[in-house]
Amino acid sequence: MKPSMTLLFLLLIAGSPLYANFSQAHWRWRKDNGSQTRATWHSPQDFPTTNPFVPGQAIRIRMEIYNSLGNNETGVIGLQYQRGSSGAWTAVTDSIAGHDFVMARFSPFVQDGEATTSQIRDDGAGTFAGGKVLVSTWQFPDTLNAGTKQEFEWDVRPTDSLAQDSVYQFRMTFTGTTDNFNYGSPVPDMMLLSANAIPVNPGIYEDPRVKEFFNRDSGWIASDGSSSIPLSDGRDLWAMDDSYINNYDTMAGTTGCLFQVRNAALVQPTGNWQWPKTSTLIGNGPGIPSFFKNNPNDNYLMWPTGGYQRGDTVYVYCMNIMNSSGGLGFSSGGNDFLGKIVFPSLAVVGFDSLQNFNGITFGVGFDTAEPGNYIYTWGIQSAFISSNVVVARFPRNNPAAPWSFWNGSAWDTAISHIAPIATGASNGVYVAKVRNKYVLVSTEFAVSCDAGTHLYSSTADSLTGPFSPQKTLYTIPDNDLGHTPFWYGPNIHPEYINNKNELLITYDINGYSNCEPACINNGFDPDYYRPRGLRVPLQLIDSSISPYDQSPAFGGDPVGGHGEGHGDEHESWQLNAYPNPARHCINVSYEGFNSRDAYLVIRNVTGQPVYTNRVSLSGPTGTYTINLPGGLSSGAYFLQMESSAYSRAVKILLQ
């Protein structure tokens, strides 16, 4: 989770630029892929860029100069670079020999000398007077009038002399002026990575749709935490931890240096990765308006780890956290909670205080599809660097009842008897059932930059293990000027297995800690704090994971699932559905169902609920009409009807 010490770090390095009155000020790297108004950006304003080296590929740098002196400044403008932070400054010209960078000379998107429009955020720095785009011109006379600012966009490309994996810094020169030309901090810096510096992860890739889903400019902007909870009406509820909400500067590409809430939720239509279709949920306070909050004292907060739905309630495990001055800046605030959200409005309606788990955090995965009367959840028990992975269970109909814990051979009510079922490489652990296997992922230990980079996986045939030896599944490619980030928080999303049998796994990064600042000139790069979404072929995790969807006819939750019947006395009751195949609605016919009410659930072939409803019955025999949710794909589904004593499922087809 995101430590509170990061807040102090951000505050210490945040501040306004101390620019001289005649100086180079803000800047921003951009791609050479459009006009000077429409080209896309490599990074936010005043933040470095780190990209793979592509021979001859041009890159553009937008730079601002301003003059608040009483003199008009006339001189000769140029561009220089240096290798590292103390190398010799070298002019960028049209000569390749001995130069690491040269003017691009040609661009299909911009012309040499064309006028610039304002692309840099610098409110109050003077009247914008325009500048030039420089593609082939590398030295020219210019005048910057008193009280004005100009922007110049330099289009340059690397040469064969470039030192790959080295930091380069750039600056404009303004020689021959009446007053000295100065430089704000930081100056533009960048790195082009060699192929050897980029991890190779055959078959695994960052899903571009998921990347764009988290790349948004209103509502939720960035956070750590990225657990998803499939809902029975076809939506997904994403539970996020410390989150930036709104306040995104679309011009600079930055947000404020401090997040606004300690947790939030995103409500996504399942499979719809267009982020404007997703709503952001936060609370109303008092104090910090976090979505999960039951204490007006803002020194206490909650971090959600995972959750599940049962009937008309969504349960989310919430770590009970207290700000503190020691360790990483936080400690336990007492017993953890199960937050309760009413479905379908998704309003938080209460919290169940859980028992003392002796420092174990549960909720890093739930299993609701096992036969019987229990829901299962995995937890982590901190060890030095690594962690012990454990498992507990609780009654389906009463999660606040005393839990029981796997002691290595049986379920035990004493938390002190709990036994590890696996080992995580760190506290960053998540477990989920993926078709016919239980999959565990964990992140290499990293509480600062340049620490671990490996994502590990292991599998088991049983929720209590044993799990296979952990193996490296992925090496993160995140890199900023040669540094790797502080990262954690792996999450498995079985509801998002695509038609290529690729599982969605996310992880979180939390900036580059002591290696690179996160807050520059009162701006924060939100991409330093956004989840990454990986597509991982199931066969790379475990070749014995079924390539086919598994039938959920004998399991499932959100209302519980117990197979076709609970006992011999209930075997005679009947469940039928018609018309079958169905198109817009389907009728449920039942006989011998001796209960006053029932839960009705429709699941897809991966076991995920797409419809749920609690209905009152007039007698043991009758019919009920289900109006099918819009947007369901044609194909096979399973209709389940149950009460506390009954459960039965039938296969249905939708046209």
Looking at the structure, the CATH topology of the largest domain is Tachylectin-2, Chain A
Distance between the termini: 44 Å
CATH class type of the largest domain: Mainly Beta
What is the annotated CATH architecture of the largest domain?
A: 5 Propeller
- CATH level-four homologous superfamily name of the largest domain: Glycosyl hydrolase domain, family 43
What is the beta-strand fraction? 35-45%
Characterize the biggest β-sheet. Answer: 7 strands, mixed
Mean pLDDT: 90
Radius of gyration: 29 Å
Derived structural class: mainly beta
Shape: elongated
Share of residues in helices: under 10%
Number of domains: 3
Number of E strands: 47
Uncertain residue ranges: 3-18, 551-571
Number of helices: 3
Structure description:
Strand 21 and strand 22 (313-323) form a beta hairpin. The relative contact order is 0.11. The protein has three domains: 5-195, Immunoglobulin-like; 207-541, Tachylectin-2, Chain A (5 Propeller), CATH 2.115.10; 569-654, Immunoglobulin-like. The longest helix has 9 residues, at 5-13. The chain has 655 residues and is mainly β. The protein has three helices and 47 strands. Strands 1, 3, 6, 7, 8, 10 and 12 form a seven-stranded mixed sheet that branches. Strands 2, 4, 5, 9, 11 and 13 form a six-stranded mixed sheet that branches. Strands 26, 27, 28, 29, 30 and 31 form a six-stranded antiparallel sheet that branches.
Task: Supply the key terms.
single chain; 655 residues; mainly beta; Immunoglobulin-like; Tachylectin-2, Chain A; 3 domains; 6-stranded mixed β-sheet; 3 helices; 3% helix; disordered N terminus
